[in-house]
Design brief:
With 281 residues, the protein is an alpha+beta fold. The chain contains eleven helices and seven strands. The protein has a five-stranded antiparallel β-sheet with strand order 2-1-5-4-3, with helices on both faces. Strands 6-7 form a two-stranded antiparallel sheet. Strand 1 and strand 2 (52-59) form a beta hairpin. The two termini are 26 Å apart. The relative contact order is 0.12.
Length: 281
Amino acid sequence: MRAERYEAMLDFLLEAVSDEGTEAFPADVLTSMRRVVRCETVSYREWSPEKQLESSCASDEPEATMQVWHAYPHVRDYDPLAGGAWHGGPLPDRERLGQALTISDFLSDREFRRGGLYAEVCRPLGVRAVMKVFLPTGGATGASFVFDTARSKFTDSDRLAVQRLIPHLVQLRHNAHARKAYLALLDSTAAARTRLQRLTSRERVVLARAATGETNAMIAQALFVSPGTVRKHLEHIYDKLDVRTRTEAAAIYTQERIVTDSVAWTPEPKVPMPNGSAVQQ
């Protein structure tokens, strides 16, 4: 691999790990990827069978590109590497996950040009070759990168560069999803904290002990009260938290504590670099 390509890969990774948003691969990050793989357009999609979950695109005219790609669901059957669209779609075959694949691996140039995918999408955009990578997601979603070029084909160096990036792409996606889940948890925890503020100090103590699994008798002994008094405290707690069971009340308390403790100290994940070093996310 030439030094320029290697430097482009490092630049892409540095750009990607510095992004702290909840979108896995925003357009500015994909722009850096265009310097790794020479192409006119690179896009990222994540979808479930029912709907598209995330989409981004980097090209000279992204709006025009995406407008043409809206025709894709109508010609998906012509695509040997079919992926998700705006209304979702089938998940990729497992044997194709984690590989840099091109349409030319499955169709001759003549077959490709005679199909609807070329007529409705590729020809209007001046695309002559398409390469895709389906990421291993470990769940009920699909995730793919699509590279389009006006060149006659993608080179072996293009494939090798993408192939080497795949483990890092998987980790970058995981990091973005973790940030998104954490923010959602913070939002839900804000509601939990508001509900917990309705409790008296004694009720908070009772709930804290109940959340650790202590029985009414154990709580009563620790607080020097009767089990009946503990039971009354719990009934008041359920009413104030708008729950019906001990388990639900304990879940609200535990949720608030998990986020409070994690805010105090959150380790920064590290993403391995091609040279064996690591960059903190």
